[in-house]
């Protein structure tokens, strides 16, 4: 029996050589078709702290599962400024991710082409600079829905007198947290990794504007988030299709409200005017982005249903400032928190869909 099997195998081998030769599947059929990637297939959301990024990342987790793109996040949350080697390493890691990908992290703009990589499409969202500052100020002290006690555990090094420091005292008495250059926060996310991007001034402002024009597909305004999502859905459908319907889902909105900062108070008019003055360049950039965003909305037929903006404050030119590392923005340092919220959101949305289906059957 064994000899018969050996003979059969030899016959099949000779038959293959005579009639098929060295032919392979690839010879007969060609290579398998390549995976068709959307354009663009490389997107970076270098999210600005306290500008709605947790809301957007929560949506991205749902969308990545729904549409099958690769959502790449980072375990590093508070390191926005990188050395040259760190830039090279991060760009390498991002560039080798499976496409289509969307990478998100708190990090100042990275120039991929400087290190020989393909420049991805950037997206981002900013908000009124004073509102962003106030949100961060109170979040660092009291957190969000989890409550003050929980946030004390997360920020154990903060002294009690610092935690309960009145916002007006902080501003009017020129505490470091409420003065330049720590108020120069938004522009470096768009200016980049150059040391001068950290210094409040025209150079960083103009470079940030240039990068917005040349490297960002969209920079939206948080105060008009629904329009931001609508444009993202239009520009990047493979990533953001149906994002607005998910965002408007009552269950999602209920969970999204858990990210709201608690115990916020409004500073006095005098303190707010001082903040305006100290954040002169931040406001020049904010108004520039807002104007570009509204031009884009009009181009696509979207009307701006917003209140008449306040008159721009009169700014004075600040004195030369030393470069200083800003206080870490701690609002996004807990990826597990996002994961928990995502799971709860997914479960809630699933239950809502199941209930709707059942009602339709009845």
TrEMBL record:
Residues 1-23 form the signal peptide. InterPro entries: Heparan_SO4_2-O-STrfase, P-loop_NTPase, Sulfotransferase. It is found in: Golgi apparatus membrane. The keyword Glycoprotein applies. Residues 313-334 are annotated as: Disordered. GO terms for cellular component: Golgi membrane. Keywords: Glycoprotein, Golgi apparatus, Membrane, Signal, Signal-anchor, Transferase, Transmembrane, Transmembrane helix. It is a single-pass type II membrane protein. Belongs to the sulfotransferase 3 family. This is Uronyl 2-sulfotransferase. It comes from Anser cygnoides.
């Amino acid at each position: 029996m064994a000899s018969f099997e050996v003979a059969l195998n030899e016959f099949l081998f000779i038959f293959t050589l005579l009639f098929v030769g060295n032919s392979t599947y690839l010879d007969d059929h060609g290579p398998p078709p390549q995976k068709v990637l959307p354009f663009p297939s490389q997107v970076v959301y270098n999210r600005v702290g306290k500008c709605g990024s947790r809301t957007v990342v929560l949506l991205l987790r749902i969308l990545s599962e729904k549409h099958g793109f690769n959502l790449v996040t980072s375990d590093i949350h508070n390191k926005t400024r990188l050395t040259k080697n760190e830039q090279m390493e991060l760009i390498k890691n991002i560039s080798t991710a499976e496409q289509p990908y969307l990478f998100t992290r708190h990090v100042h703009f990275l120039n991929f082409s400087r290190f020989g990589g393909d420049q991805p499409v950037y997206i981002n969202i900013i908000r009124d600079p004073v509102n962003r500052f106030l949100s961060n100020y109170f979040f660092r002290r009291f957190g969000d829905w989890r409550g003050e006690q929980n946030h004390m555990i997360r920020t154990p090094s903060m002294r009690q007198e610092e935690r309960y420091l009145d916002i007006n005292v902080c501003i009017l008495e020129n505490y470091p947290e409420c003065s330049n250059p720590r108020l120069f926060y938004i522009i470096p996310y768009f200016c980049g990794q150059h040391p001068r991007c950290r210094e409040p001034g025209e150079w960083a402002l103009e470079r940030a504007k240039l990068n917005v024009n040349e490297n960002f597909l969209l920079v939206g305004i948080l105060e008009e988030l629904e329009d931001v999502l609508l444009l993202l859905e239009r520009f990047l459908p493979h990533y953001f299709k149906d994002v607005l319907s998910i965002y408007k889902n009552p269950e999602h909105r209920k969970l999204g409200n858990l990210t709201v900062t608690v115990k916020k108070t409004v500073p006095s008019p005098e303190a707010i005017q001082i903040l305006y003055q100290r954040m002169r360049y931040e406001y020049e950039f904010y108004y520039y982005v807002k104007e570009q965003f509204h031009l884009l909305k009009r181009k696509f037929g979207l009307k701006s249903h917003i209140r008449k903006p306040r008159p721009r404050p009169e700014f004075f030119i600040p004195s030369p400032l030393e470069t200083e590392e800003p206080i870490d923005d701690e609002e996004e340092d807990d990826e597990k928190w996002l994961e928990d919220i995502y799971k709860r959101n997914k479960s809630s949305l699933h239950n809502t869909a199941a209930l709707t289906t059942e009602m339709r059957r009845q």
